[in-house]
Specification:
With 108 residues, the protein is of the alpha+beta class. Helix content is 18%, strand content 30%. A 5-stranded antiparallel β-sheet has the order 1-2-5-3-4. Strands 6-7-8 form a 3-stranded antiparallel β-sheet, with no helix packed on it. The two termini are 29 Å apart. The structure holds zinc ion (ZN). Zinc ion binds next to loops.
Length: 108
């Protein structure tokens, strides 16, 4: 499944247009996602039909679920650099899984 993580840590589950139509017709709130991290609820079928970008349903904030940056303590998001697993949006560093700690590791 594809997700989109906004800079503020909010996560969307990205769905295709067919899934959006299905969810919309079962009264589940679906959103049009824009490249600038904004979104708009789909109020009617035309909102779905005429949007050429991504669609999503809300997953929620992931702060506390994601690992933290070993340098600055900010939460990490999946890296846009294919060579790395995680990226810190605050200090711009990329990390692989072995370099970082997660909440579950910290707690155990
Ligand atoms: Zn950092």
């Amino acid at each position: 499944m594809k997700t989109k993580v906004c800079k503020d840590g909010f996560v969307w589950l990205v769905i295709n247009k067919e899934a959006t139509y299905q969810l919309f017709s079962s009264n589940i709130e679906v959103f049009r996602l824009y490249d600038d991290d904004s979104e708009a609820a789909c109020d009617n079928a035309n909102d779905v039909r005429f949007h050429n970008g991504e669609f999503g349903i809300e997953v929620g904030f992931v702060k506390g679920l994601l690992p933290f940056c070993p340098k600055c303590g900010n939460w990490l998001v999946p890296s846009r650099n294919p060579k790395y697993t995680w990226e810190c949006l605050r200090c711009g560093e990329n990390f692989n899984g072995g370099e970082i700690g997660s909440h579950s590791q910290t707690l155990s």
